[in-house]
Amino acid sequence: MTSRVSSGRPVAWEDAGRQIASLLGSYSAVVVTSSDPIAAAHVALGIARSEAAHRRVVVGDLVGDIPPLRSLVKDEDPHGITDSFLYGVSFNKIGYPVEGTENLYVTPSGTDPQIDEEIFRSARWTKLAEGFTGAASLLLLVAAADSPGLSDLIDQLDGVVLVKDADLPAAPSALVLARVASPTPTLKIPLHSITARAASWRISERAANWMTSARSTNWRRHRWFYPALAVIALVLIAAVGGAIMLARVGVRPRRSAAVAAPVTVVTKPIPAPTPPPPRPPPETLYVAPPANVNDSASAAVFAVELLIANTAEGANLFVRKNGAELPAAAVSPVVFGPEQSTWYQVTAGAYTTRNQADSLLLALRNSGIIRDTSGVSVTRTPLALVVDSVPTQGGIGDAVSAALDKYAARGLQVYALMQDDGGALIYAGAFARADQAAPLIRTLRGAGLKPVLVYRTGRAP
Hints:
The protein is an alpha/beta fold. It has two domains: about 10-180, Rossmann fold; about 295-455, Sporulation related repeat (Alpha-Beta Plaits). It contains 13 helices and 15 strands. The protein has helices at about 10-20, 35-50, 65-70, 80-85, 115-120, 125-135, 150-155, 190-220, 225-250, 310-320, 355-365, 395-410, 440-445, and strands at about 30-35, 55-60, 95, 105, 140-145, 160-165, 175-180, 300-310, 330-335, 340-350, 375-380, 385-390, 415-420, 425-430, 450-455. Helix 1 packs across helix 2 (about 35-50). The longest helix is centred in the middle third of the chain and has 30 residues, at about 190-220. The two termini are about 55 Å apart.
């Protein structure tokens, strides 16, 4: 198998992996797959090098002696995954440290590099994933997108990172934690451009040396030529000087009797460029102002931004795994950039003072839920969408839980805030501005709900 990536330089794929590494900060066992396994391997290495800064990372080869990973293992005949699953070699003994990157290990395919379907389907992966979770480490398994048994493997782990491909036919129901559609656009200069330029410099240098040598040889062979050339030059100078003197005393050359008539050039008018057809206006959704403007002063404005995922599945899984520690957890689709890409923001908490949000942030750090704090901060999200309410009643806690479970069964991420009257409002999303709610309004309406934008009030139960 060639080590050349079918599209994009290897370092650009690794850079793309680094860019999405923060999305995997709360996961412990992930498959990185693609129809281009070389690209998947480089993305996995990019993720691994970034995450290795604060935890142990192991990259496993389920393709079979794939060059980007095999080249990092210095042993000539190393034990690997097949030796562990088929012959009982301990998984702890098949991780080889990568030189130059602390906490990063590569697990090769093994002395028998053919990864059979039974290895993909082995129930042992569940125990291995639990071990990595308990050790606060990360396991990245690189696999081809058409591998038999890939769906069973992904089901035992946290999910999958999909590289280059839009979908995954071998595992259609797989939980996609992140997508890497292309390498980073910053490194598209072909590698051969530098060598071509150097080659041209070498050719120029050789040509200059050859011309110097030729001039030296010609001087020796044709020494008589240069004196003759000097005589001819003197004659020409004298002739030109005589012509100038004749012009000064009034002798001019005879003009031709026929004078050419001026030529009239007729230019054909250039038609005005045809303007391009107008672009259709982007699809917009009118978002009505908040229905409870009078509650703006008492709104639960402050929250903690925990994660921005590029798939709804990845954001929802993060909330499900950590929901017990995340009060008022909200998943909000937000559109970014000129390409209008949709990302999913995860926030927790609904507070009227910043100090309360700061306390939640500190508690989440101390609990270990937040390990990578680069994208975590207190933010202002005063707006949300009301989708339901629970009236005041005995056993209000059970009633609220039942309402939340009803929406969770439909795949909708909602949360409850208790109100001053003893009841509860069921909210979806958390937004800084009204227009940001448009994508979630469209989704909820598609699910048959009638969301209303409001200033969110209340407190987490």
